[in-house]
Amino acid sequence: MDIRPVATKPFAGQKPGTSGLRKKVDVFQQPHYLANFVQSIVNSLPRDQRDCLVVGGDGRYFNAEATQIILQVLVGNGIKQVLVGAGGLLSTPAVSHLIRKSNANGGIVLSASHNPGGPGKDFGIKFNNASGSPAPEAVTQAIYQNTQSISQYLAADLPPVDLAVGEEYRFAETTIKVVDSVDDYAQLMQSLFDFDKISEAIQSTRLSLCFDGMHAVTGPYATRIFKDLLGLPDRALKNCVALADFGGGHPDPNRVYARELYDFMMTDEAPELGAASDGDGDRNMILGRKAFVSPSDSLALIAQHHQSIPQFKSGLVGVARSMPTSTALDRVAQHLNVSCYETPTGWKFFGNLLDEGLVRLCGEESFGTSGDHVREKDGVWTVLCWLSILADLQRPVSELLRQHWTAFGRSYYCRHDYEGLEADKAQTIMDQLVRNRGSILGRMVNGMTVSDVNVFSYEDPVDGSVAHNQGVRVQFDDQSRVVYRLSGTGTDAATLRVYLEQIERDATNQGADAIEYNDVLGEFANHIAQIREVSGLSQPSVKT
Ligand code: G1P
Ligand code: ZN
Known about the structure:
By secondary structure, the protein is an alpha/beta fold. It contains 19 helices and 27 strands. Helix 2 crosses helix 3 (about 65-75) and helix 10 runs parallel beside helix 11 (about 330-335).
C-alpha cells in the first residue's frame, strides 16, 4: 500500500459556519474537495495531537464514500488510531462521547444536521476537539486558513475498507477500529438515568411515548434505548429506519417537518410524550398530549425539574442559553440561584463553560438541549430527561407547562425565517437596523416600548476570546425582545432569522398559540427592519 502526496489547489469558500462546513453534496463530490479539508484539519493539529481521531456521520447520501476518503487521508498522515462507527454511522452526540471516552484528540463528524440529504441536497463536515466539542473559532479559522493555501495532501491507496462492527485494520502507521455505533452511547445513557424507574412507569402504563426518528441516524439509538432497554412497544417508534435521503423528507424536528407526529400528539389518543430527532441526532422536539413544548420552554422546564433527573441531582451549578433563546431559563436560574450565561448561537460557545464546570445544562431555541455528559446537543438524552421528569412527577406535560408559566411567566416565543434572500440585501437589513437605532428607540407595539437596540458581542469568560456581531437585539421595557441574525448554516442564499419573544405574566392570558400571539410583533419586526422594502418579502417563509 502506497502513501503519496497528491498535488491540489485551494477551493474558495471552505469556511466553516455556525456548525462546520456545509455545501451541496456535488460540491463535496468534486475531486480533492473533501481531502483538502481533511488535510487542513490534520495540519491544524499539533504533531503530538495526532494519536487518535474518531470518524462518524449521519449516514446521509455520500457518507460512505466520504468516510473512505477520510480514512485514506488519515492513514496518509500517519494518525495512529482511527475509531470509526460501523457503516460510517455515529450520531453527533455519540461522536462527542466516543472522543471523550477514548481520550481521542478529536473527531470528524459528517453531517448537514437537519438539512435534506440525497443527490443535489446537502452535505457537511466538522471537526470536534479533544473535549468532544465543536472546534472553537480559533481552530475553525486555522483550518480555513489552511484550506486557502493548501498545495498537497497525503493519501494512502487503501482498498475499500469494510466498516463492519468489530473489524480492526492495520495500514502503515495506522490502526482502524470499527466500533458499534450505539453501544457506548447507550451505556452512557444508562449511567445517567434511572432506566428501572422509567421502565416501571412504562410497564404500569403511566408513561407512554411516540418517537419519530425522521428516517435519520437516531433510528438505531432509539430502537436500542426506548425499545430494547426501556421496553416501549414497536408502535412507539416511527420512521426509525435510517435512510440516506431521510425518506425524501426534511429531517428537522419541528411542527412543520414532523407534522404527522405533531398532529397525532394533538389528539386524545396521543401518548404522554411525543418526540422527534433530526438528521444527526442532536436536535429534538418535545410534545405532550395536546401540548407543544417550545425548545426554550423545554430547556427551562428541565432546569426547573432537574431534581427528577439523576444526572443533575447534585445541582446545576450554572446553565447557559444562546442569545436568541427565550429568557424563560434566566427566570428559573434566578429562582434556583444558579448563574445563567448568554452565548452566541452555535453549540461551540458552550464548550468552555462546560469544560470549566461553570454550567451543566445548555440549550438553544433551535430545538437543541444537552448537559455536561457530552459537548454536543443531544436529542435522545433530552427525551430521556423528559421521560425521567414524567416518571417522577406523574403529571401530564400540559400541566407542567401551565405550572411553569404561572410561576415564572410565559415567554411566548417563535421564530420567523426569511429564506432565499440575496446576501447583500440581508446584510443591508442588518446594517440599517443599527443605523436607524435612534428612530426605532421609543416605538411602541402591543403596549410595549422599545428601550434599547444593540449588537450582541460575547466575551468568553474562560479564554477571553471575543465574538463580535452576533445579532441585533431590539429590547422592550418589559424584557420582551426581537432578535435579528443571519443564518450561518445555509448552503444557498442568505436566511434572515427574526426571533420574537413576548413575556406574558398574567396567568389568565397564557393559553394562546405562540405563533398567532406573536404575529403583530412579527409585523412590527418586519416594519422596523424594513425587510419588505429591501427584500420585497412581506411575510416570512417559515414560522416555527
Ligand atoms: C442553526 C441554529 C443554531 C444551531 C445550528 C446548528 O444555525 O440557529 O442554533 O446551533 O443551526 O444546528 P443558523 O443557521 O441559525 O446559523
Ligand atoms: Zn443536527
